[in-house]
Amino acid sequence: MSALAHDFSSALSPQAARSQQALRIAVIGGGAASAIQVGELLRRHRGPLSIDWYAGCAEPGRGVAYGTAHAHHLLNVRAAAMGLFADDTGGFLNYLHTRGMDVAGSDFVPRQYYGDYLQHAVQELIANAASNAEVRVHHESALALDNNAHGDYTITDSLQIRRRTDAVVLALGVLAPRVLPGVSAIALDSGRYIVNAWESRPRTSAETIVVIGTGLTAIDTILTLSRRYPKARIIAISRHGHLPGVHLEKPSTTYSAAADLLAALKEKPSLRDWLRELRTHTRHAPDWRAVIDAVRPITQAQWQRFDLVERRRFLRHLRTYWEIVRHRVPPAIAEQLAVLQASGQLTIRAARVAAVEADRDQLRVEITPRGSNQRTAVHADLVFQGVGLDTDVRSAAHPLLEHLLQHGHASADPLGLGLHTSDDGRLRRSDGNDWPNIWLLGPLLRGSAWECTAIPEIRSGAIRIAGAALHAEQWLNKQDRVV
Ligand SMILES: Cc1cc2nc3c(=O)[nH]c(=O)nc-3n(C[C@H](O)[C@H](O)[C@H](O)COP(=O)(O)OP(=O)(O)OC[C@H]3O[C@@H](n4cnc5c(N)ncnc54)[C@H](O)[C@@H]3O)c2cc1C
């Protein structure tokens, strides 16, 4: 935990006696999305409310992104836009200022500060909750979720404790990284192949390191490795060999023709039309970033208009390029990468990794360079898997997801983009019906919303869910319910 961190446990005592009249909402997940959801519920409820927060970890709120201990892992959104709530986007910046930090709103600050802020903000909300609300934080994971005859649900946690609830928010984040195809069992057993690039365990010395991937996860990994092994040669490999786009030092001005662009896109449902419009506008705009940012508010709605064929086409032909222009890195990160490349410490290669085999005291990474059909080999002391975030629930080793899928309580997106939901985020069962009171928030919404992983989309999703879940106060007949 960094210097800004707070003692989370001090805020966990219930604010109100648990009441049978209270609306019971379970929030499952231990990352930023669940923290924001708990916050929105506490801000918006009027009637008695009882929240069971299944965090599955000791420090709820940080999750994968904001649990990093490395100061060189920066936010890729400016500090002024990262407040916990949509009506207080400056909340994070204020928090930093009250801690005496000299930070401008346009700065990209370390992600660990954001984790500190998230925990602090939720801790405060819990401590200051109305007297008719309580939050019980369970550090266990939720393993099963089933519906009851009375219209409510039962959650079983990893201590086999069962609790009933009226509504559920699933904020499970991304899946744990899985080993890529082609990596041999011996390579894995050697300890030289690291599946989870976030692992910070120090390892043996290394002269050559391969990082598979050149996106945001890979960049975090490269920067950490370049500090840990300053003399090692790092080779980053991805099919296209492109690094993410770079933010401007100062925010780009709003795109002046945004209204025309959005109107044109709304009229044009096909991916091909979209691409044509975006190309035309980026050619004429002073800065391409402003065009990409202008489209963001309608990306979810547009994705929902694409049929399966269009979505598949997008994934095959455009996904990589969209990720590059949409998920940009701060200029300071781009500069560090440029320095590493100029010094020869970092090389980027465009190639497909075909296999990873153990080879004496090293690993042999067999690659097919882009544009070639000849395999060639790179020998490395360590190989880090830094590919994008995994949302393919179809073969995930995740007890709750397995339970939901096996019992038909949930269905998988056919393109491996998470779980099926309605357009407003209600979980879809395998029979095609949506649960009235189970919602999904965060990265597993990719199939339904595409744009769903960053804080702004999580914030608006949490507001929508809080509105719908708390609305249940009106129709739940608390007197009749069997508890
Ligand atoms: C490296 C990185 C950097 C990012 N940087 C930014 C940024 O600068 N700005 C921005 O806007 N967005 C950023 N994002 C995107 C976004 O903020 C994150 O994806 C967001 O934190 C997602 O939060 P989450 O809670 O959905 O998921 P996660 O952070 O993955 O957390 C989910 C948590 O739920 C737990 N969990 C899973 N199943 C269960 C269960 N059954 N019971 C209990 N707990 C469970 C998991 O163990 C995990 O701790 C970044 C993402 C990453 C990965």
Account of the 3D structure:
- The chain is α/β, with parallel strands linked by helices and 483 residues long.
- The protein folds into three domains: 253 residues, FAD/NAD(P)-binding domain, CATH 3.50.50; 118 residues, FAD/NAD(P)-binding domain; 69 residues, no CATH class.
- Helices cover 35% and strands 19% of the residues.
- The protein is built from 14 helices and 16 strands.
- It has a seven-stranded mixed β-sheet with strand order 8-14-9-10-11-12-13. Strands 3-2-1-7-16-15 form a six-stranded mixed β-sheet, covered by helices on one side.
- A hairpin with a 5-residue loop joins β15 and β16.
- The longest helix has 21 residues.
- The N terminus and C terminus are likely disordered.
- Flavin-adenine dinucleotide binds next to α1, α2 and α6.
- It comes from Pseudolysobacter antarcticus.
- This is Pyridine nucleotide-disulfide oxidoreductase.
- It holds the Pfam family NAD_binding_9.
Highest CATH level, the class of the largest domain: Alpha Beta
Helix- and strand-based class?
A: alpha/beta
Low-pLDDT residue spans: 1-18, 477-483
Could you give the order of strands across the largest sheet? 8-14-9-10-11-12-13
Overall pLDDT score: 90
Largest sheet: 7 strands, mixed
Strand content bin? 15-25%
CATH fourth-tier homologous superfamily of the largest domain: FAD/NAD(P)-binding domain
Radius of gyration: 23 Å
Q: Give the count of structural domains.
A: 3
* Strand count: 16
* Helix content class: 25-40%
InterPro entries: FAD/NAD-bd_sf, HpyO/CreE_NAD-binding, L-asp_N-monooxygenase_NS-form
Protein name: Pyridine nucleotide-disulfide oxidoreductase
Pfam families: NAD_binding_9
Domain FAD-dependent urate hydroxylase HpyO/Asp monooxygenase CreE-like FAD/NAD(P)-binding: 26-174
